[in-house]
């Protein structure tokens, strides 16, 4: 059964976002989903949100600049601090006594920064899916993955980086091959209904945010996030944390385990036959893992 979605407009520093609300069961602790990117959107998480919303309220929103609706066109707003401030505003507006966060990729960074900067936050748990917490570690993993595909790919990419030339067709083909293997692998036949959600990871507006903040590809960072790293602060996270990564994730299992080791009391789960979009690629195991985690509260 598809649940109807309600919307609410929220003013945040630098503009406003549209908060989408699924589900009506207010007895269980609600969930707020934070999409990846920066510059992504929540479309790919929609099927999982529908499933979760059968027993609790789920909130989702597209971050500033991530779609034409919230596009301000001002690059001065596209800084990590502003996105954390926007998240703080959204959580304050939700006004729930307790709240779970699910942060995908870049969203995991936002979730971590929120609980680290807001001592009286209602957030009691974070599920970090394919977490981005360090640019250096993300790039290291991406280049290891490139070598696994083809050692020549890494050589070509590094040559493009040295010349700052990223419009070459071969570079674009490497991006496509990389994403087919580590971002969203071919969905199994019984998951065919989810294929529509693997398209349009970013809108035209979102791609501008991504290029400004990150760069031309997952394995090349030329933007303002080039030196971001919060690994030295992870030990200060006091809420419950579950880390999820796919068997063939961009975030290698070893790196996810390293993050787990830095967060006191955290847990980790690996989704078999999945990559970065594990909630689409292996939805049943993802959902069961999440519900087992929530059963603690």
What does this structure look like?
With 297 residues, the chain is an alpha/beta fold. The chain has one domain: Rossmann fold (3-Layer(aba) Sandwich). The chain contains ten helices and eight strands. Helix 3 (106-117) links the parallel strand 5 (99-104) and strand 6. Helix 2 (80-94) crosses helix 3 and helix 4 packs across helix 5 (151-163). It is globular.
List key phrases describing it.
single chain; about 300 residues; 8-stranded mixed beta sheet; 10 helices
Please compute the radius of gyration using only Cα atoms: 18 Å
Task: Supply the CATH superfamily name.
Answer: Alpha/Beta hydrolase fold, catalytic domain
Q: What is the global morphology?
A: globular
Main sheet summary: 8 strands, mixed
Task: Give the ordered list of helices and strands.
Answer: EEEHEHEHEHHHHEHEHH
CATH architecture: 3-Layer(aba) Sandwich
Helix content: 25-40%
Rounded mean pLDDT score = 92
Could you give the count of β-strands?
Answer: 8
CATH fold node name: Rossmann fold
**Total separate domains:** 1
Strand content: 15-25%
Sheet/helix structural class = alpha/beta
Q: Output the strand order for the largest sheet.
A: 1-2-4-3-5-6-7-8
Detail the poorly predicted runs: none
Highest-level CATH class: Alpha Beta
How far is the N terminus from the C terminus? 26 Å
Q: How many individual helices?
A: 10
């Amino acid at each position: 059964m598809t649940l109807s979605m309600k919307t609410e407009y929220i003013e945040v520093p630098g503009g406003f976002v549209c908060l989408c609300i699924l589900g009506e069961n207010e007895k269980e602790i609600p969930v707020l989903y934070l999409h990846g990117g920066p510059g992504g959107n929540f479309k790919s998480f929609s099927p999982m949100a529908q499933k979760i919303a059968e027993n609790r309220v789920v909130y989702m929103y597209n971050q500033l600049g991530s779609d034409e609706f919230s596009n301000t066109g001002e690059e001065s707003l596209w800084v990590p601090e502003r996105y954390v401030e926007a998240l703080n505003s959204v959580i304050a507006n939700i006004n729930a006594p307790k709240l779970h966060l699910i942060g995908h990729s870049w969203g995991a960074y936002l979730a971590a920064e929120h609980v680290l900067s807001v001592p009286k936050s209602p957030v009691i748990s974070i599920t970090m899916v394919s977490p981005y917490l360090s640019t250096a570690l993300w790039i290291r993993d991406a280049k290891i993955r490139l070598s696994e595909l083809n050692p020549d790919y890494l050589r070509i990419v590094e040559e493009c980086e040295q010349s700052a030339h990223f419009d070459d067709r071969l570079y674009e083909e490497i991006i496509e091959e990389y994403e087919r293997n580590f971002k969203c692998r071919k969905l199994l036949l019984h998951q065919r209904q989810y294929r529509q959600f693997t398209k349009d990871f970013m809108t035209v507006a979102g791609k501008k945010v991504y290029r400004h903040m990150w760069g031309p590809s997952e394995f090349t960072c030329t933007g303002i996030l080039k030196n971001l790293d919060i690994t030295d602060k992870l030990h200060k996270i006091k809420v419950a944390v579950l880390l999820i990564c796919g068997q063939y994730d961009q975030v290698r299992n070893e790196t996810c385990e390293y993050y787990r080791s830095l967060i006191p009391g955290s847990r980790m789960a690996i989704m078999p036959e999945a990559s970065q979009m594990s909630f689409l690629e292996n939805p049943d195991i993802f959902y069961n893992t999440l519900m087992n985690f929530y059963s603690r509260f």
